[in-house]
Design goal:
Layout lengths: L7 E6 L2 E6 L4 E5 L1 H11 L4 H12 L3 H17 L6
Antiparallel strand pairs: 1-2, 2-3
Helix pairs in contact: 2-3
């Protein structure tokens, strides 16, 4: 995990997950897909690879998955959970 994120604690399972921001005192919840994306980001996987995997698994269009992933990453950034 990035050293800038040492204040984040996560618990992820097949049903989703939670992210505790100990610095801000906030908890964020994730659905199952959000949990998988979060873990992929923490492993350093780039967005294009995550998009390709989700397109392959869900059958959704690449445009839909890119938009959804961009929106999700933007929400995480806005909450201070991902570096900008």
């Amino acid at each position: 995990m990035d050293t800038e994120q040492h204040h984040l604690r996560t618990a992820i399972d097949g049903d989703g997950g939670v992210i505790l921001d100990t610095r801000a005192g906030k908890i964020s919840t994730l659905n199952a897909t959000g949990g998988r994306v979060w873990m992929a980001l923490q492993r350093g996987q780039d967005l294009d690879a995550i998009v390709a995997e989700l397109v392959r698994e869900t059958g959704e269009t690449i445009e839909t998955v890119k938009k959804d992933l961009h929106d999700f990453a933007g929400a995480l950034e806005k909450q201070g959970l991902l570096p900008r």
